[in-house]
Amino acid sequence: xxxxxxxxxxxxxxxxxxxxxxxxxxxxxxxxxxxxxxxxxxxxxxxxxxxxxxxxxxxxxxxxxxxxxxxxxxxxxxxxxxxxxxxxxxxxxxxxxxxxxxxxxxxxxxxxxxxxxxxxxxxxxxxxxxxxxxxxxxxxxxxxxxxxxxxxxxxxxxxxxxxxxxxxxxxxxxxxxxxxxxxxxx
Length: 186
What we know:
By secondary structure, the chain is of the alpha+beta class. Helix content is 45%, strand content 13%. The chain has a four-stranded mixed beta sheet. The termini are far apart.
């Protein structure tokens, strides 16, 4: 009985170390695919142009919050959705990430938190690790596009913050996401 607690503690630490290692490493083929996708997206013009936010000296700057909160702006879309058990950014959401990266580059005082989320399937620990990989993937693409790392934080909520309650594919597909949340607008 005296040795039961230290054994449990050691087992818990081993599991946490394993999860941390899994969350911080990507298979080499995934890293290459994400890097080539990010570099190819730099040379391809996005389908939706974002408004130019730079101003000439003496001109008034547009209100940044209005741009981020305008339903007609590409910046209004702030979620990236994933297939089951995946964390790669699908082609459908690259323009969204690129638009936010442009905004962050043009507004060095702006900061975001990328929140990784999962559906309810999988263990709590697995979902926390997967949510972190999803958030880190969005941050990675943004930094490849030139956004300084200091402007982006990542966090995983795993399955703890579902957007849609339910236990079917319709709900799960809405809960497998990364959300780009502006903490500070410039």
